[in-house]
Specification:
Helices cover 38% and strands 16% of the residues. It has two domains: 11-72, no CATH class; 79-125. The protein starts with 10 loop residues before the first strand and ends with a helix. It has 126 residues and is of the alpha+beta class. Strand 2 (18-26) and strand 3 form a beta hairpin. It contains four helices and three strands. The longest helix has 19 residues, at 79-97. The protein has a three-stranded antiparallel β-sheet with strand order 1-2-3, with no helix packed on it.
Length: 126
Amino acid sequence: MLKLSLLPEEYLVINENIVVQLTRIAGGRAGLAVHAGREIPIVRGTVLEQQGRERPACLLPPSGKKGRYYRDQIFRWNDDREKAVRKMKQTIERLEEKGCGEEAEILRTQLERVIPAFWEEDLAAQ
């Protein structure tokens, strides 16, 4: 079995007449667009299995785990997130300077819950 990794908007061609494009990835799900002739049946595997068909032997067995949702995955660290964290930290410092230490501490605690300090170095390295 051939395994491929695609980014959104990338595509693959099968037998010169079937085009499959990854349209989006969101919430732990991938969207696919399939262009094929009407004579080629395209059916979800779950529908076939509900109708009593066997799962194709070439597929990996089901993991038994629940699908991972986007919120459960580690997000990619990028410049925009780095700038946002830096801006939030600057705002917290300004609150402290203005004597709003309690509010600043609440915000600092919440920021650390969203992005623990030990993640910042690990994520920045990715």
